[in-house]
Amino acid sequence: MNDTPTLLAKHTAAPDRPADARPAAARRRALPWGGMAAWLVLAALLALTLAPFWMMLKTALTPAAELFSQSTRLWPEAPTLDNLRRVLGGMDAAQAIAAGGSGARIDVSRAVLNSLVFTAVVVVLQTACAAMAAYAFARLRFPGRQVLFGMFIASMMVPGVVTFIPNFILIKDLGWLNTLPGLVAPFALMQGFSVFFLRQFFLSIPRDLEEAARLEGAGFGCIFLRIVLPLSTTPLATIAVLTGIGMWNEFFWPSLVARDETWQVLPVALQAFKSQTPQGQPDWSGLMAAASLAVLPTLVLLLVLGRRVVESVQFSGGK
Known about the structure:
Mean pLDDT: 80
Largest sheet: none
Distance between the termini: 61 Å
Strand content: under 5%
Number of strands: 0
Radius of gyration: 29 Å
Low-confidence stretches: 4-15
Number of helices: 16
Order of helices and strands: HHHHHHHHHHHHHHHH
């Protein structure tokens, strides 16, 4: 049979075209209904998440005397920084009352400094201890290793309120109330999540690097400090960021052991500011101005390092 017509037809036919021959711009505009619904849901969830921050900022910039008269507005008519000045001590009690405040006062600068010191000490100690424990669980072989690691994992399921009373009794017996050691002690060592997270990453480091260093005479301490830690900057930074955010917002434990202004952290100071009501009601505009200051550090951390934290959690969780 002669196949020449068939071959000619194949060679003269138009080249294959994609299934969707529309221009690229038209394809981008034609978003599927499922995609549109997903974006609408995400937008609604984002609005619900940001609404409290918007109300906080709006209240902080609204003059205290006009707070209730402008409660239905999305933005104050005449934004002002007087509330921030009052919180930072830029006005005395008489001026604050004249501006519509309650006259309540707190030492915000001292509270911010205490929070920074408390957070920094806990982050350094907890990250260092968790890294050493995680490396031991990942590389060392010793009796009871699996049982001990299982206990660390089980500690993640124990509510923190269970340990507050025995910890408070211990701190009181040691005479550490209203001191930095009393604030730091329950958080200074390792946490179950930090150990688990770092162990998962250490398991992914090639053993060949450590074996080569061991052949050169390096011990476990040298390998850990000079090889493992330099390769683990991203997970270590993730643990430091997560721990820092948690400690910056910690309220319950500092309110138990450090109610004195000497070591009063910012969340406790905000509660004290709210409870001071010389004029009969809390100074909501001043309180929201102080809360805006408290949110600022964690917001900056999440904006700068949020993507790295998510990627690191996904990587370690998949191992």
